[in-house]
Design a protein that fits this description.
This protein has 247 residues and is an alpha/beta fold. It folds into 2 domains: 128 residues, Rossmann fold, CATH 3.40.50; 108 residues, Rossmann fold (3-Layer(aba) Sandwich). 45% of the residues lie in helices and 12% in strands. The strands form 2 sheets. Strands 5-4-6-7 form a 4-stranded parallel beta sheet, sandwiched between helices. Strand 6, helix 10 and strand 7 form a beta-alpha-beta unit. Helix 5 runs parallel beside helix 7 and helix 8 packs antiparallel against helix 9.
Length: 247
């Protein structure tokens, strides 16, 4: 462990850069959610900003033969070397490689999707809509965790999924204004299908919630930040005890 953290019981490692703004926003969320009055009461963390990690969705959909797994494994080893005691990955699609990476990890990976399913269960949600990359949807990552929690789910139809991917890749990642009519249409369709809540299951979608008025959605990045604060032994600000605001 680095001497910098020798007297620190918990240090959060962050594998970010996927995309870069999402990992920056995650750090802001952690600071905002921590009930601290002094610098020294906040959570020590180490960010590896790695935008060069191969595209996760492209690999999962067979459009690329570059697996992100080797880079993720190396990143975890680096975090452990500098003193991180547990880590997060601020990219939901990367959780599709959880088993391959966590099996060799010397420190625990806080699983954003499992934390989200657990939160929805605790709030009594019976059915949730999944808004995520096509790679995440295709692997059934959210579907499996929701089913374990006894929660029904819905995914967008083909046109709706194309809109979700457009929002992620051609709006947020491209640094362009969000076409909210696309977002609102997808959420409306999920509601019509009986979903009580829509999961913003991609950290690019988290940035839409940050910048635009969005209701009836739970943000996976907010859930992950909340879990990191709690699991690293810090006190959570009361206003973040609940993350779901329903209409």
């Amino acid at each position: 462990m680095s001497k910098l953290f020798s007297d620190t019981p918990e240090v959060l490692g962050i594998i970010g850069g996927m995309g870069p703004m999402a990992s920056a926003y995650f750090q802001r969320l952690v600071v905002s959610m921590t009930d601290a009055e002094l610098d020294q009461q906040h959570l020590p963390s180490v960010l590896l900003n790695l935008p060069t990690i191969p595209d996760r969705t492209a690999f999962l959909l067979g459009k690329s033969d570059q697996s992100p797994v080797p880079v993720l494994r190396e990143a975890v080893k680096t975090l452990e070397t500098v003193g991180a005691t547990r880590f997060v990955v601020t990219c939901v699609t990367s959780h599709c490689f959880y088993d391959q990476v966590a099996a060799e990890s010397p420190i625990p990976w806080i699983h954003a999707v499992r934390e989200t399913a657990a939160l929805l269960k605790s709030e009594g949600v019976k059915k949730a809509g999944i808004l995520a990359t096509s790679g995440t949807v295709q692997t059934g990552l959210f579907q499996a965790e929701l089913e374990k929690a006894g929660i029904a789910w819905e995914i967008p139809d083909e046109e709706g999924q194309q809109s979700v991917m457009h929002l992620i890749y051609h709006n947020v990642k491209a640094g362009k204004p969000v076409e909210m009519h696309r977002f609102d249409r997808v959420v409306s369709n999920m509601r019509e299908a009986g979903c009580e809540v829509c999961i913003l299951g991609c950290t690019e979608l988290s940035l839409i919630k940050r910048d635009y008025p969005v209701s009836g959605c739970v943000d996976v990045l907010e859930v992950l930040a909340r879990a990191a604060v709690i699991q690293c032994g810090k006190k959570l600000r009361p206003e973040f005890q609940r993350l779901i605001q329903r209409d």
